[in-house]
């Protein structure tokens, strides 16, 4: 690991560099090692205590499947919580965390795209919007495997509410609004016409590519929300018992969605 990384000013906004890839390799190895350690010494023991209570002599294969799924959800929950905490820590003190116009302004008198495509700011906020829902989802799965139906229902309701508020309200009405309209408005207000004519074509390519991807993400949000809503309705009809996840495949694997 580069020693310069330890003395870096993390509050200073800088552009991505090829040397940053070494940091990704470092974190990949750390996360792999961390998962092996947690899976073996913590998740396994917790799963055996919660999923297989004393005096229970059911099907050993079924118990083992639940233990494996419990450990998988525990790891996903920890990762999502860690990413959410990091994203909030990095972004909450930034001006663009509360004012979406600041996505396109600064530092100094620079505006997008003079900042080399500052979609990293929006990306960090989108990351924070998504990870919190996954925390509730994985906690609900762990409760389901442990037989705690009440906690499963509570976790699922929190998952549904957070998904609706963040991905169907906040994301389209603030994030997509900013990328679609505020970006152009800010550019037109601060840039002179000569500069606009010189860089206009490249700007429009980036504008349409990024917004197309962001709107595709919103379509996925709506599609998954419909499936989640169906689960919620079935939960109400079952008087609080969460049925099998309708997103699971034919073999019963409760694999989490990927945006």
Describe the structure.
- With 259 residues, the chain is an all-alpha fold.
- It has one domain (20-237).
- The protein contains 5 helices and no strands.
- The two termini are 31 Å apart.
Write out key terms for the chains shown:
disordered C terminus, disordered N terminus, mainly alpha, 69% helix
Quaternary structure state of the chains depicted: single chain
Number of domains: 1
Low-pLDDT stretches: 1-8, 246-259
- Counting DSSP E segments of at least 2 residues, the number of strands comes to 0
What is the percentage of strand-forming residues?
A: under 5%
The helix/strand class is: mainly alpha
Q: Could you spell the SSE succession in H and E letters? A: HHHHH
How much helicity do the residues have?
A: 55-70%
Radius of gyration from the CA trace? 22 Å
Number of helices: 5
User: What value does the average pLDDT take?
Assistant: 79
Global outline:
globular
Cα separation of the termini: 31 Å
Largest beta-sheet characterization:
none
Helix-strand blueprint:
Elements: H1 20-51, H2 60-91, H3 119-146, H4 149-190, H5 193-237
Helix pairs in contact: 1-2, 2-3, 3-4, 4-5
């Amino acid at each position: 690991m580069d020693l310069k990384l330890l003395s870096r000013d993390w509050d200073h906004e800088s552009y991505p560099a090829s040397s940053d890839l070494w940091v990704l390799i470092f974190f990949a190895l750390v996360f792999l090692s961390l998962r092996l350690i947690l899976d073996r010494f913590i998740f396994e023991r917790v799963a055996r205590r919660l999923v297989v209570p004393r005096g229970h002599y059911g099907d050993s294969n079924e118990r083992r499947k639940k233990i494996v799924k419990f450990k998988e959800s525990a790891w996903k929950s920890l990762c999502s919580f860690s990413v959410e905490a990091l994203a909030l820590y990095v972004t909450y003190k930034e001006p663009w965390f509360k004012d979406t116009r600041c996505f396109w302004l600064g530092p100094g008198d620079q505006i997008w795209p003079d900042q080399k495509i500052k979609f990293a700011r929006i990306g960090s906020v989108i990351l924070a919007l998504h990870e919190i829902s996954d925390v509730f989802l994985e906690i609900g799965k762990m409760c389901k495997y442990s037989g705690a139906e009440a906690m499963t229902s509570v976790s699922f309701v929190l998952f549904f509410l957070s998904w609706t508020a963040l991905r169907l309200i906040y994301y389209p009405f603030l994030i997509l609004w900013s990328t679609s309209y505020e970006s152009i408005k800010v550019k037109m207000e601060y840039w002179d016409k000569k500069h606009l004519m010189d860089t206009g074509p490249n700007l429009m390519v980036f504008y349409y590519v990024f917004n197309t991807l962001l709107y595709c993400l919103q379509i996925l949000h709506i599609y998954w929300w419909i499936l989640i809503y169906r689960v919620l309705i079935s939960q109400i009809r079952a008087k609080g018992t969460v049925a099998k996840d309708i997103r699971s495949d034919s073999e019963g694997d409760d694999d989490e969605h990927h945006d």
